Amino acid sequence: YAPPPPLVAGPGGTAPLPGRSGAHGGSYVAQGTRIDVNDQARQIGTQIAAVDKGFLAFDRLANDMNQLRADYERLRLSHELSREIAAERDTTKLLEKILTSVFKFIRADRGVIFLRNEGGELTPQAMQRRDGTTAPISVSSTILNHVVHERAAVLTHDAAMDFAASKGKSMILNRISSAIVAPLVAPLQHNNEVLGVLWLDSETLAQFQPKDLELVTAIAYQAAMFIEINILGKKIENEIVTREQLRRLLSPNIAERVLSGQLAVKQGGQHVEECTVFNSDIRGFTRMAESKKPEELVVMLNEYFERMVDTIFQFEGTLDKFMGDGIMALWGAPVAHRDDAVRSVECALKMGEVLGEFNRERLQRDEQPLAVGIGIHTGPLVAGYIGSSKALSYTVIGDVANTSARLCSIALAGQIVISETTYAQLGGRFETEELQPAKVKGKDKPIPIYNVIRSRPMAQVPANAFANVEPTNSAQE
Questions:
Q1: Whether the Cβ atoms of residue 320 and residue 329 lie closer than 8 Å to each other
Q2: What are the start and end residues of every segment in region (Disordered) (predicted)?
Q3: Torsion angles phi and psi, residue 14, rounded to 5
Q4: Each residue of 417-458: pLDDT tens digit?
Q5: Which of 30, 115, 248, 261 is the most buried (most CB within 10 A)?
Q6: Which domain holds residue 143?
Q7: Last residue of a domain, which of 82, 103, 122?
């Protein structure tokens, strides 16, 4: 005799629990006796089966809820990453923050961010290992090149194998050693240029899933955007600094032409075949400085320099430097004109007029008028940015600059002393007087010099004097 199966109590009596029946399915057989299962028992069995299925659904729901929580946490961390890196302006720190954040929700063992250098080569800029070590990280150049060329992210389970890429699509390869590699594509101003690559890998088989690829791709897009913002911000900062430096050196219109690329200014030293160097200083300045308070002296010099520099820029000269009360300016570097010598002399004459107006203002304030001497020389020299890596300035070196300074020291108050080489390029446009040849330091013999008195009336200027003259922008306007 075999014991009967457990029974389920119900309103109509008892019946065996469904699923525990014998070979006849709907009935239980004991010692040849057949016991039929009534309809009510079947209904109860159906209800129990439904409850059993319900428990399975609850299990699936619990798993789904856990997955939703995990996905939400990843999205939260992704949003947190955006907030953290949005305000970071240091590119190195920005890349480190990106890797640190990525490691929170992607179980990678190693991570590297590559950026392209000026030559277009990918160079590692940030690296991280989950174990905290600093050993070098090897990557697959084949995968890197594919990602850059196709501008597409890759998910692979065999980072060492060669693979054939489908154009423009992310790849999923099922082998060993997982890796996710995503391009950092510039979304703003760089025409979708690949700025770099985000590399993540793991030694665990099938560590990354398609959902990880989607997330890393989104993060790479965010990272590229902020990297590009940093690049553009740095470019703007450099342009502002360059613009200010050029505006201190060049007339505003020349500075704008250089910045816009219409004119080239080469950094570093270069030989200039012909450049006109202008020097001026205030006569009797030392005595004046002894009788004035320092703050009064500074105010006076600033007022004087403001007027003189505006005049230099009016004739498209380059301001080289201030030397105490002296001014050094250039025509022919870094921007050259056919009539640079003429421009420098015209500027010197105009300075005399401007100084006269300034002196009238000073006399009205019961202040002493200023007297200035000017020296101008033309010839070959070396021009360029000279100084340390932290402080560069554009200047010229050579005999021409020294001779110009010597001529300035010879000039009396109100004189514009020019060398023979400068005089030869004026084409008779100015009324001059020849002075006694001057003994100049560094020269074996006295050199011929001239004093410029005024511009000649147009009727007295030779017809060929304007053959090499370029109109200044101020004249055109």
A1: yes
A2: 1-25
A3: -120, 155
A4: 999 999 999 999 999 999 999 998 888 899 999 999 999 886
A5: 115
A6: 88-233
A7: 82
